[in-house]
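Trying the structure run again after the queue cleared.
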Amino acid sequence: MKIKYAVGVDLGGTKIKIGIVTEKGKIVKKISIPTLANEGPDKSIGQIKKGISAVLKGNKNLISGIGIGSPGVVSLKKGTVENPPNLIGWKKVHLGKIISKEFSIPTFVENDANAAAIGELIYGAGKDLNSFIMVTLGTGVGGGIIYNKKLFRGDTGAAGEIGHTTIDQNGPKCNCGSYGCLESYLGNNYIIKNVKLKLENNKDSKIFSLTENYLKNLSPQIIHEASLQGDEFSKNIIKDLGNTLGHGLASIVNVLD
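Done. Tokens:
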């Protein structure tokens, strides 16, 4: 009997990560490609198809299913991505049906943070825990809640969307339309925008040399690298981000436990 594998897809606002995974959660093959979210859903779906095709080469007969983690609210029964703030033009996109039809493989769609929480519950840091919150940080900020060894979805399936909890009603506008969301401080795009503004008064930061004075190359990874090289400006940025995340998480923990 041949061992069966699954394809896992992490659909992010900036990049799509795709891998082949064993039933024990081991990743045996993986790739990463741009989401091209600014070009609309059709382009991004094309990228998903392209990536899945790349990892399936010579392996399709071994694949039992495809699982997709998507930002935002997801309809599990329909495999529909409802309206994620960081994916332009996505409104009730029947992603599960589209991918299943393309590859003739059963396809399931789940909120990305929920999928990550389930992964940690079964294979990772949550194996020995009854309840925990899984936080995802990237283009957006997501959360998955495990309560008594089960995923808590809430009545509408939107439980855990901690990125859109308000921490300052006078704060910056979020892509969801509200102001002062946790994501509007901790999402990658917001971090980069904020750092670029502050760099105008911090011309001695190592960030300039690491980006070769081309700030379009700026990323959270570069800010982290600059901090490791002793850049005080970057250290302070990371400290502020950590404090903001800590305040947000403390509020969530106080509500749940």
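The chain has two domains: 5-117, 187-256. Worth checking whether this holds up in the mutant runs.
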